């Protein structure tokens, strides 16, 4: 498990768009033995993932809102700090750097020079954003998490 907090500020790492796209498309695997529980309200979970050859490390982060039951954030990071993709559910709209407002739910995707500040409406391959468990599964599929970590759904998942 990485030795820093989910909320810790770290210096951003710039990737080219080609590098970021390649990392997002790379198969990711959970290679541990730990069983996880979907976090409760205000909770967070960070799960390490790896490429087939273990040359690349990734992180699947799951965070829940403290008050709003429906507020969930799922993100995949590469190289400890680079957010490749993030789904926001049950939160506020997002204003992109070009000024366009994107309602929630939405998907943030790494964009060179802008990191994860760009968002798009949730794509159609996300089957039911009102179901956090289904959205997490769809997100892992979107991010190429081939060997999924064993996560037990919670009472309010």
Description of the molecule:
This protein has about 160 residues and is α+β, with helices and mostly antiparallel strands. It has one domain (about 15-150). It has helices spanning about 15-25, 130-140; strands at about 30, 35, 45-50, 55-65, 70-80, 80-90, 95, 100, 105-110, 120, 145, 150. The strands form 4 sheets. The chain has a 6-stranded antiparallel beta sheet with strand order 3-4-5-6-9-10, with helices on one face. A two-stranded parallel ribbon has the order 1-11. A hairpin with a 3-residue loop joins β5 (about 70-80) and β6 (about 80-90). The model is unreliable at about 1-10 (pLDDT under 50).
Topology summary:
Elements (H helix, E strand, L loop, with lengths): L16 H9 L2 E2 L6 E2 L6 E7 L6 E8 L7 E7 L3 E8 L4 E2 L5 E2 L3 E4 L9 E3 L10 H11 L2 E3 L3 E2 L5
Parallel strand pairs: 1-11, 2-12
Antiparallel strand pairs: 3-4, 4-5, 5-6, 6-9, 7-8, 9-10
């Amino acid at each position: 498990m990485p030795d820093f907090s989910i909320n810790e500020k770290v210096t951003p790492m710039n990737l080219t768009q080609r590098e970021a796209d390649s990392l997002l498309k790379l198969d990711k695997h959970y290679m541990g033995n730990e069983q996880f529980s979907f976090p409760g309200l205000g909770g967070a979970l960070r799960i390490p993932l790896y490429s087939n050859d273990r040359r690349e490390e990734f992180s699947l982060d799951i965070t829940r809102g403290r008050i709003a039951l429906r507020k969930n954030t799922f993100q995949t990071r590469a190289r400890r700090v680079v957010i490749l993709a993030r789904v926001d559910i049950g939160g506020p709209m997002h204003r992109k750097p070009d000024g366009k407002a994107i309602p929630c739910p939405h998907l943030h995707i790494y964009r060179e020079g802008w990191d994860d500040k760009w968002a798009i409406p949730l794509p159609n391959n996300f089957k039911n954003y009102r179901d956090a468990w289904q959205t997490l599964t769809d997100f892992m599929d979107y991010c190429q998490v081939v060997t999924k970590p064993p996560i037990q759904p919670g009472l309010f998942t």
